[in-house]
What does this fold into?
Amino acid sequence: MTPLLELDGLTKEFRGPGGARTTAVDEVTLTVEDGETLALVGESGSGKTTLTRLLLKLLEPTAGTVRFEGRDLAGLSAAELRGIRAGMQVVLQDPYSSMNPRMRITDIVAEPLVTHDAGYRGRAARPRLRERVGELLTSVGLAAGVQDRYPHEFSGGQRQRISIARALAPAPRVVVLDEPTSALDVSVQAQVLDLLAELQQRHGLTYVFVSHNLAVVRQVADRVAVMRRGAIVECGATADVLGAPEHPYTRELLAAVPRPDAYRARAGATGA
Amino acid sequence: MKTPVLEIRDLHVDFELSAGPVHAVRGISLLAYAGETLAVVGESGSGKSASMLAVLRLNPEPPCTYPGGEILLDGRDLLVLPEKQLREVRGNDVAMVFQDPMTSLDPLQKVGNQVAEVLRRHRGASRGEARAEAVRALDEVGIPDPELRARQYPHELSGGLRQRVMIATALVGRPRVLIADEPTTALDVTVQRQILDLLADLRARHGMAVVLVTHDLGVVAETADRVVVMNDGRVVEHGPVGQVFDTPREQYTRDLLAATPRLEPTP
It folds into this structure.
């Protein structure tokens, strides 16, 4: 079986002032299997967000290829690429800046539908579009009736649900989740992670889950790729990478995670 | 019997908004002791930041009002202190570090000058003394090459170094209470670890009381002696970290602990 996504020797260089070159992504070779959750883990500046932009073809690679469903994205015409893009969607970290504050929820969620399906365009299609948006909102745990409201009327967690509904609108196969819960409170984060798991099961989705939070990754990912300075230093099943890390950098990351049971090892924190 | 450095008694904080008053803090009490870290835990909107800003009366007035309570520093009520005396308290007795160092540092001032300014303002130090002391303060918080760094601007520093500059600024006046409001939330996990270690080290060395505001129970377990759990403007539970984590009395605390993602599978 062909993997859903294949990255081969993917490299991206940026040129800074004075022509200084920075290699943001450095010869990344990686596959993402249909229906799995692959976590991309790393610290700020490690290149994980640039890598997701390359695989969504929002950036052109300096070298290397991205294949989606076996097709090299580099060889596609604009029209073919549009068709493929319906199958790859993204949910971003900040639910506040990723929505136009002057658009109603209907139009925010419907935007990818209108982009990818002519059947949702125009006044005559409006009832059909509203019905579809209502279904999408219900599927992420919101009331269908909220679609006439504006983003500022929603909390961070609700906005992230709206972002997820929007990503699911064109029935994608793969969804890139770029730190989808980093800006949320821990109880809201737990609800959104549960929702993502449920949607994955129901729709057979593939997730590329970008995160710096290894505890969250342990909960959601089948496999983990650890990035550092643009390169993947370690990749494998979540239990292996987090349970028996091979690379010193992975061990360093793991050691730095604050543990909710750490007080047991400290003197003075227990007892009155 | 230990005496607390800082005591908050039945504090209320309101915000008078056009849509009506918002009761952000509804009668909280807490004690901070020298040499200890007290964690104040809660989710957004729980009132934890509004309570901490109240200690130095940094909430914008209006719309903020303090309809009740006392904030006692060595027996003096900061809530009724005249502004002039309050300015003496800020930086000298009580200092604050915030989440986002980029918005709390002046982008147009060299970082050394920003640390030195505290000394010139609060201690009346001369320009030369203040500069030398600022470099020592940057060195103490583990900034490599402090002479060079003192001459740089905030944008030339990484997030971790900026947070160290903030801590240096807060500590150069040798405060007895340091309030750190989500000091590591914007940082990478390895940098977070360094900053938490630094705070613990400085607390031990100077015998400060540290009040650490956070939503991360992992951070609490790593650094705090006692914890106050806030929800909806009230303290729902407080006690030694071990006690609150091992035998939480309130459902809210249990929910918070259950929602916290863990690296090791829970047995």
Observations:
- The first helix of chain B runs from residue 48 to 55.
- DSSP finds eleven helices and ten strands in chain B.
- The mean pLDDT of chain B is 89.
- The interface with chain A takes residues 43-44, 159, 188-193, 196, 215-222, 224-225, 239-243, 245-246, 255-265 of chain B (CB under 8 Å).
